[in-house]
Amino acid sequence: MQERLQELQDEAVKQVADADTLQELEEVRVRYLGKKGPITEVMKSMGRLSKEERPAVGAKANEVRGRVQELIEEKEQTLREAAVTKQLEEERIDVTLPGRPVSKGAGHPLTSVVETIEDVFTGMGFQVAEGPEVETDYYNFESLNLPKHHPARDMQDTFFVTSDLLLRTQTSPVQTRTMEQHEGKGPVKIICPGKVYRRDEDDATHSHQFMQIEGLVVDEGIRMSDLKGIFEAFVKSYFGEDREIRLRPSFFPFTEPSAELDISCAMCGGSGCRTCKGTGWIEVLGSGMVHPNVLRMGGFDPEKYSGFAFGMGVERFAMLKYGIDDIRHFYTNDTRFLEQFTRV
Ligand code: DAH
Prior knowledge:
Radius of gyration: 44 Å
Number of strands: 9
CATH topology of the largest domain: BirA Bifunctional Protein, domain 2
Mean pLDDT: 91
Order of helices and strands: HHHHHEEHEHEEHEEEHEHHH
Bound molecules: 3,4-dihydroxyphenylalanine
Structural class: alpha+beta
Number of helices: 12
């Protein structure tokens, strides 16, 4: 019987050594040390032995059992450590590898320009107004002193939705909408940035969709000198203190008199170059004193109130400030172009 026990121990030692996983080791444990295992069997059958034999066999059985148990525990420890080491190895992070670049977005240059211009005007007490992009013929044209069949309508080739609904060709309709809200009482002092649409062929200086910022001031005693003062402050703030301005007579149906605003050319400082076509001046916006008909249609009494208005192209302001040579860059969303404005 002692030999049988020794055999069992040798077998178990081998199987423990062969167990490669905790699972296999557990199977070995159950097989040798479990209630139905051979060692337990031997112990149970000891009753059949003679008194003399019993102590020696009992001691041997205990020894074998203890030895096998010990070996299993040792092996278990080894396997557990190996599993942890393997896991650490597999999940190792190389902190010295370069990170994946995260591309950071930024405001679109047109948005930045609008915000900059809004800041200048709100600083002078203007409020920011809005109006719809799908507009009625009345607000886009008629209320601005452009009755049906007026030839000046041709200057703004229009996308019509129905015979009476259109995509606004200018932000000027917000003038009438704002005046209506004021119900004939001044002061009105707003700017309105927004998208406008025209049936133009796209090229370096034209786009069928672009942005404008409209301005309107209506109150008692507003004069052309007020317009000029606001322009002077705006141009110096947006383009720089060294810029000069001049007003040049022009025509718009909704203003009388009308004027175009020029700024001195930054390229040549006024002496004449290619950018300013040799004139030393660059045209930047249209403006004028609000026509009495427009005041009246907005619900204001032209005997009591006067005002000035202006409208500028946002793309043009951006192009002049940053030296951009093609309006289409704003709408093709080439990231190589846009990335240049992340810090503007
Ligand atoms: N709406 C004009 C345009 O799109 C620009 C303009 C000129 C607006 C004179 C005005 C203004 O308010 O007074 O060409």
